[in-house]
Specification:
There is one protein chain. This protein is an alpha+beta fold. The chain has three domains: about 140 residues, no CATH class; about 200 residues, no CATH class; about 130 residues, no CATH class. It contains 17 helices and eleven strands. Strands 2-4-9-6-8-7 form a six-stranded mixed β-barrel. The longest helix is centred in the last third of the chain and has 40 residues. The radius of gyration is 32 Å and the shape is elongated.
Amino acid sequence: VSGAVRGYLDGKITHIATMKCLGAPGKLIFTAYLLQILFLGLLGSTAGLAAGATLPYVLKQLIGTHLPVPMTPGIHWQVLVVAALFGLLIALIFSLKSLGLARLVSPSVLFRGYSESSNRNPGTAVKVSIIISAMILAALAILTSSDQRLAFWFISGASLCFVIFRFASTTVVKLTHLIPKPTNPSLRLGLGNIHRRGSPAGSALFSLGLGLTALVTVMLVQANLDDKINETVPNEAPSFFFLDLQSHQVESFEETARNLPGLTKFERYPTLRGRITAIAGKPVTMAKVAKEVRWAVRGDRFLSYAKEKAPDIKVVAGEWWPSNYAGEPLVSITADLAKGFGVGIGDTLTINVLGRDVTARISSLREVDWSTLDLNFALLFSPGVLENAPQTNIASIHVPAEHEETAFAEITKQFPNVSAISTRELLKNVSQTLERIGTAFRSMAGLAVLIGFLVLAGAVSADQHRRIHDAVIFKVCGATRFDILGAFAAEFLFLGLIAGGISAIVGSLAAMGILKGLMKISFTLHPGTIITTILTGIALTVFLGLVGTWRALGHKPATYLRGE
């Protein structure tokens, strides 16, 4: 928004100078263009509201059938009003500085033909207005959010991101004069244009960097998720899950499963459902439960029990009970659940199973990798607690792909009441859903990149007078159109390289933070994805930059020099 407003006002600089010559005070100019910007912001917000209200209906058609819950889009007027306020406040905040500088334009611009850039101060009143407007925007975001803590951290993170990119773009532009000057004249001129006074490089790098960073982040996150779903998980996950296996069928089912051709692993657990009602003696409603594990106390959970510790069970605290254990009820829970509940070895959990409260002491904590899709339970009880309760069984098998059809046919033929779920088909559906979701996120990141290119185009357009001035001087000194085009191309090439380099680093770090910090899965750098994204950004930067400066190459020196 700031870059677009600056580009718009720079294009109106002669109009502003004319108004100054006719006696218009700075306050009138500020107010007139502020109303224009707010009107344009209202038009943009209206278009955004229309697109946002339509998008849920489009998403329903794309991914609605793949979601676990029905998607029922509708028009929520309160949300639209809040979104419109966000749009107008953002337009106001990021236009005030440029408007404050616009009122300081000197009438002498009409005589020079262009305005000399300088580090002017927009004024204390403008700065105070920006701060107050930003505080109102932040307060509106926090107060209208269902999770005010998350909104606070999001605003803090977004503000930090803006500061980092503004600092990085400004610093990089200043440091370019330390780079050894290339011997090629076009490269030398292109590099010099980046750090010259009045260069649009700072705002262009800021806008392009944010957009490309978002795109790199989304592409890397999706690439890692695709690897996990299409390569890592299928190699580790069972071939089939079998549900609703009755207790009297267990022995014959195990015999059939273990005789399947190519079987590499077989697992079976009894399953019941129960609700956690007390943690360390406190009712769940009074206990402090971390947000990330509240799912465990929101309803019934699947429970199981086991005598012996399976080979893939990893105990990280406490000890597993003996196979012949016959003492008080014990339970083994996952380490993340214990951390979220604020409990440890020796504390108790009370679970209501079919109307009966069972209080068990925590004997061990387990570390579980849910991404393997192996049979795992958040709560595993010791023997002698749940055996007499009504229950069913769940089982899984691992067989090579070439034997999956045979295994499916054999099991379903002998046990028609058992539901068989193919992991391969399940992962295929998940992959398709993620692809659709990824397309939506890539579109949003692509929109951010497009906005960056529009800012670049606006900055180049507003800087047109200076480029015409440079082109005329180059021609007077004997440069051909190809020489000037090469200098401009080199400038935009350097801009693209710098923006791409910053985006590759920041985007990779952001993707790693999302995957390892939030999703708890491993991160793999995909150089091909990064390089492809960055090269595309560089190519578009050079292309759009040259399109914006093409008019400057057509000016004849004589016409311009007569005006000077």
